[in-house]
Structure formats: C-alpha cells, structure tokens
Amino acid sequence: MDEQRDTTDRFLPRFDAAGLVTAIVVDADTQALLMVAHMNADAIEATRATGQAHFWSRSRSALWRKGETSGNGLTLVEMRVDCDQDALLLRVKPAGPACHTGRRSCFYRRVEADGGLTFLADDAQG
User: Fold this and answer.
1) Which residue in 3, 21, 75, 124 has the fewest CB atoms around it within 10 Å?
2) Known binding site for Mg(2+): residues?
3) Which residues are annotated as a binding site for Zn(2+)?
4) What is the CATH number of domain 2-123?
C-alpha cells in the first residue's frame, strides 16, 4: 500500500491513529508559513467542497472553518499532498491574520540558543 501511495494519481490520505493528517498552511502569494493544523476526512471534504479551509480541533474535538468567528478565513488556492500522503500543504489566500493572536502567522517567535524567545518584528500584530 505504501508504494501505491507514492506512485498513484489517486488521493489516498494516510490518517494517523486519531484519524488526522497534518496540514501546513502557506500564503499562496508570498509563500509565508501561516499555521499548522490537523485535518480529518470531514475537514478535507469540507475544504474541497467549499474552497474554504476547514480543520479538526483536537482541543474541542470538533470540525471548524477557519474564520468562522473572526472573519479571517482562508480561501483554498491549491491542496498538495506529500509523497506518502500523511501531510497536506494548503496554499491559501488569507482574509486577515491567520493566528488567533491577531498576527499574520502563528510562527511569530524565534527560539534562541539560550531557550528564550524573540518576537519577530516582521510579523507584528495587525
């Protein structure tokens, strides 16, 4: 089955024991990393059907559409799958900040050698 996933032209996601795949989300225009989330089969189907990014919330155990409360949705441009189909790359057009903190990206802090965190000026809150 693994060889088939590597060479097939069919979408056959390999879900983990919790029924999830990792989804890496980048801005389709800038290629900036926006967020990492998880998707189950329902989230993948909803995203493909609506063109809006949906994810599975592990903390709430619920399907959610990015932006359903904030208005900062993610319009799908392209969905890619990695070689063994256990991770997805979503190229999106964001309607606002991707992070719940109001920042463009969830990756706004750099981990320093001493274990401290440096806030990155190029990803200030909007």
Assistant:
1) 3
2) 82, 84, 86
3) 83, 99, 106
4) 3.10.20.810
